[in-house]
Amino acid sequence: MEPLSETHWDVVISGTGLQQSLLALALSRTDKKILHVDQNDYYGDAEAAFSLQEVDQWVEKINSATLRSFQNASLWKSETEAEKLSFSRAYTLTLSPQIIYTRSKLLSQLVSSKVYRQLEFQAVGNWWIYQRAGEDVTLAQGSLQRLPNGREDIFTDDNIDLRSKRGLVKFLKFVVDYENQAETWEPHAKDSLHSFLSSKFKLPPSLQTIISALTLSLDTPENTTVAYSLPRIARHLTSIGVFGPGFGAVVPKWGGGSELAQVACRSGAVGGAVYVLGTGVKDINLQEGSDEPGVTLTLTNDEVIRARSLVQATYLRDNPSTKSPVVVSKTISVISSPLSALFTTTVEGAPTPAVSVVVVPAETFHVDDILQLHPVYLMVHSSETGECPVGQSVIYASTSQTASSKKLLDLCVSSFIKAVTAENAQLLYNLHYEQKQSTFESYSAGVVHHLQDPSLDLAFDDALLGDVEEAWNVTAKNIGLEDSGTFLQFEERNPMNGDDEDEDEGF
Amino acid sequence: MSLVSGPGRAGETSGSLPEELQLAIEPHVRYIQSLDSRRDELEYWLTEHLRLNGLYWGLMALHLMGRPDALPREETINFVLSCQHENGGFGAAPGHDAHMLYTVSAVQILAMIDALDELERRGKGRALVGSYIAGLQNTRTGTFAGDEFGEEDTRFLYGALNALSLLHMMDAVNVNKAVDYIVSCANFDGGYGVSPGAESHSGQIFTCLAALSIAKRIDLVDVDKLGRWLSERQVECGGLNGRPEKAEDVCYSWWVASSLAMIGRLHWIDGEKLKEFILRCQDTKMGGFADRPGDMVDVFHTAFGLGGLSLLSFPDLEEVDPV
Amino acid sequence: MASHGVPRPSTITTKDEQARLKEEKDIKDYRALVDLTSEREYSLEVLELTSKLLTKNPEYYTIWNVRRRLLTYGLFSKPSDSSLLSMELPSTSQTDTTTTSSADSSSSLSQATPPSQNSRMTGKTGTTLDAIKNDLAFLVPLLMGWPKCYWIWNYRLWLLQQAKERLDMEIARAIWTQELGLVGKMLTRDNRNFHGWGYRRKIVAELESPELGGSSMVETEFEYTTKMFSASLSNFSALHTRSKLIPKLLNERRSDDGARLRFLTNEFDLIAKALWTDAYNQSAWFYHEYLMTNLLEPVMQSTITPNMSSTERSAYVVLQIENVKEMLEGEEECKWIYNALLGNTMALWQLEERSPMSDELQDCKTWLVELRKLDPLRRGRWDDLEKEFRRF
């Protein structure tokens, strides 16, 4: 391969996280010279997926503070059950177990950009709420209650009395049409969802909790506002049934966001982009004022290259933000049980879900005598996701970071395991880490465009696509790309394979 | 005559302009006249199996608009007769098998243009048509099959009685048995289904009521119950649907409204709102009606849109017999 | 059929030259296919041509008939069926005089096949069972693509009838049984499909019949309606089917009067639960009306509790009216509640053969005022009701 410095690059993209990869995909049909580098020796950045061995290396990296988005990683492996853990490559543990709602623009853009065929999507089906048994908030005993997906679930659920059924259905009818009913909610936009549900729909606290579980809010119930919640609940409800009965969200098989990033990069490579891993951008030198605006970059291997534009993440910026970043505490746990009970469908014709969502509402547990203020979310992945061997499952747990959040996550995971399985399911492996999101927004400085940090949201946030589109527009302008077409809208690469007959058969 | 949909499109769903609420008679006439000239469109050929129905619907529309001569009479007769088979039945077009549906259409067309005599003169005779139809009655149950392969449906029963009454050959079949069969299709909601046990459906209710009307046995209908059910077919936009919780469609303007008329309950729906809905389904420039505003027009919905308007005594339209 | 629900394109497109040429070619291909098919020799080639044509246009009923004849006179020709070859089927196409291309070759349909073709068809893929199985499989994607096409459903039923007539009972039963799975799948995709429910009714009737060695399936079908209703409370098709199954169900259970009353109460509880969940559910109200009919029109309709005395009926109706009244609180905008109150109260007068009491009449008038307000579309109906009230 000729040295990188021989080429005058049109675009250099630094980092192979989801946003950068989608940008590479968006640019893949141009005849421009594109160099895509990543300082990591793996694809996906904050959305990467790892074998067990790769996790070991990653943890080391975090703890030596070379990855700015992550901190406080710790790894635990069961000694008594060590033999149950399979070989390293039997696992694909993902850093981004984000679910993608079926109405997300991401899915339509994966279709219009023709890369969806290289992906295998799986259903995110059952949603559960963890209910503590009795009043003892330290004792890990409880049960799972299925979250209603709509009118029929509410009808069937005998835990809900007749009047509450009516209140819930009224709220559901309202929320899917909330945009047309501003007079009902706008005066309460900044109130908490709980108080709104209580005052406007006469819903008792237990049902308030059920509704707010659908928001996937990481914040406390008090700080989870009506304005924040309604679009998220509406998104949840209107997504169900779009791709088939019984589910409203999907995840890509083999490691979620990592798989998306890699497929997008592969398209970039097919389009002629050059990929170099293990090499980052060390130093940036803007050529301002010269005839030809551009940038000179020193790579971490000390190669110096020239480019007409650069796109990179904001967190690579030097001066730290004045606002403190959002931090989420996460664990990835491998369990020695398929947790089959979690994945059975109740809806006729529904696919067996590969992912199930369990919500542990705020105020379920005490940790070190402190009441749990934030909800905890467990994304439970079956072996169908390709992330663990058959007979096991992976739990991705998240909650807002606090002094006791690690302990809380562990308590939630162990309580959940107890609630869901009568058999002797063991925790085999547990990785804890914290992920930060800086509050920087995307911005441009000359021909250098900075992308904001990936979202910590548990569901794919369409705003991210807007960011990528903006980066794409800016870049196109910087490199003088005329007629760049419509964002992520491509013809078939090979018209011979243009047979779309099985388009609807994805699930 | 073609059933090709389009090229016109019905008006927008919103922002109905006052001029849109006029009936665009001239464009509709031109639309129907143009239908047979669309042989350069694939859909023309894909709908050949409906040609005779299409001709009937087109003629019905023209008659309602007081323009019966807009299609050439002689050509119409020639085409109809070219669809007839040795056994007396008619197919949808030359080369298509005989079937009750098209035989009924053929008789209706010839009756409409006062040309039933041509059956004797140039066709295979009125009696043979009647015996083809009569031969499809199930002597055990009283209902009718569509053709030799035996599919039974109250649509065929109505068609048979309708055609036979036009041919003055009601004696050829067992009318009482046919009436008994209709009664056995009645449901608790007052409506009728396609066969005993089947769910009530506006289209089937029309066929059953019309058949009972022809047999002069409308007294067998639970009019209040059926009237309630039928009146609930009207939805907010003014249009009518075919079954509970289904979408509205212009063709039900005919099936439901004429059924209500037959049981004297047409005033149980809002005629003005229905008129407005039907008018919003027309393409005022290119002519034709669609199933609902914004969709492609076709001759089927054109005939039944106009039929609905005529029932609602829309000015400029000939009065229609609900049956 | 006519263009139901075909949305208009967002822009008015004038076809460009390329599109025009393509359409021209498509027409040519299609018409060539039609011509080929209408030659009507009964060879496997023609069968394939009909498949091709029907895949493009399953509404072309004549081609389904061609296919029926192809099977009847050709492929269903294993030795044991030989007697059937001489069976006379009236075929309109054979007597067709008005067309040119079809008449000449069609006469060969009822004659013996040329030996070469005959031997091919009676080869190992030529048995009746295989022919039927292949054809059933051919129809599945067509049904999925055109679930509302009468001709496909009819043809499939015809094919199943052929299985019944031509195959051993055990084999035929297995084929019919599979249909339940298919129609279940179709109804999961569109739970109101008219054809689907009708088809299911026919399949069940056949599977219950002695010809297929069957017995009653009323219990499982009743369960099926419960499942379909629970999956979609607006599924009136399921409730309709339920109403038709109940009399048979109770007879087969040999339910005594007590069991019948419990059954009725359970049905009322189920529908009340649905109405509490969503009082705007028209389908559930119609079913409620069906249950009320059982009490209110004893002579005509009492299929659930035929031996209930009129006093018991009255009491039960009054109880139901009270239950509906309870639903009003918090749902004062729901016309269906007033509608039910009004209808049932008036029916009570008839049941008890008496004039309304003054407070009842007052209630009815109040409800009518609400109905006028909430449901102006049907004001003609309210006018008629008001006239009726004036009689008292």
From TrEMBL, chain A:
Entry-linked Pfam families: GDI
GO biological-process terms attached to the record: small GTPase-mediated signal transduction; vesicle-mediated transport
Single GO MF descriptor: GDP-dissociation inhibitor activity
Gene3D superfamilies: FAD/NAD(P)-binding domain, Guanine Nucleotide Dissociation Inhibitor, domain 1, Guanine Nucleotide Dissociation Inhibitor, domain 2
Highest taxon listed in the record's lineage: Eukaryota
GO cellular component, one term: Rab-protein geranylgeranyltransferase complex
Family designation: Belongs to the Rab GDI family.
PANTHER family in the cross-refs: CHM, RAB ESCORT PROTEIN 1 (PTHR11787:SF4), RAB GDP-DISSOCIATION INHIBITOR (PTHR11787)
Protein name: Rab proteins geranylgeranyltransferase
Biological source species: Coleophoma cylindrospora
Automatic annotation (TrEMBL), chain B:
Catalytic reaction list: geranylgeranyl diphosphate + L-cysteinyl-[protein] = S-geranylgeranyl-L-cysteinyl-[protein] + diphosphate
EC number: 2.5.1.60
Entry cofactors: Zn(2+)
Record's GO cellular component terms: Rab-protein geranylgeranyltransferase complex
Entry-linked SUPFAM superfamilies: Terpenoid cyclases/Protein prenyltransferases
Domain named Prenyltransferase alpha-alpha toroid: residues: 24-323
Entry's Gene Ontology molecular function annotations: metal ion binding; Rab geranylgeranyltransferase activity
CDD domains per record: GGTase-II
Cofactor, how bound (note): Binds 1 zinc ion per subunit.
PANTHER family reported in the protein's UniProt record: GERANYLGERANYL TRANSFERASE TYPE BETA SUBUNIT, GERANYLGERANYL TRANSFERASE TYPE-2 SUBUNIT BETA
Recorded family membership: Belongs to the protein prenyltransferase subunit beta family.
Function: Catalyzes the transfer of a geranylgeranyl moiety from geranylgeranyl diphosphate to both cysteines of proteins with the C-terminal sequence -XXCC, -XCXC and -CCXX.
Protein name (Swiss-Prot/TrEMBL): Geranylgeranyl transferase type-2 subunit beta
Organism: Coleophoma cylindrospora
Automatic annotation (TrEMBL), chain C:
Keyword Transferase (UniProt): yes
Positions of the UniProt region annotated as Disordered: 82-125
Keywords linked to the UniProt accession: Prenyltransferase, Repeat, Transferase
PROSITE patterns in UniProt: PFTA
One Gene Ontology CC term in the entry: Rab-protein geranylgeranyltransferase complex
InterPro entries hit by this protein: Prenyl_trans_a
GO biological process, one term: prenylation
Coiled coil feature spans: none
A Pfam match: PPTA
Summary of the function given for this chain in its UniProt record: Catalyzes the transfer of a geranyl-geranyl moiety from geranyl-geranyl pyrophosphate to cysteines occuring in specific C-terminal amino acid sequences.
Family label: Belongs to the protein prenyltransferase subunit alpha family.
Record's protein name: Geranylgeranyl transferase type-2 subunit alpha
Species: Coleophoma cylindrospora
Higher taxonomy: Eukaryota, Fungi, Dikarya, Ascomycota, Pezizomycotina
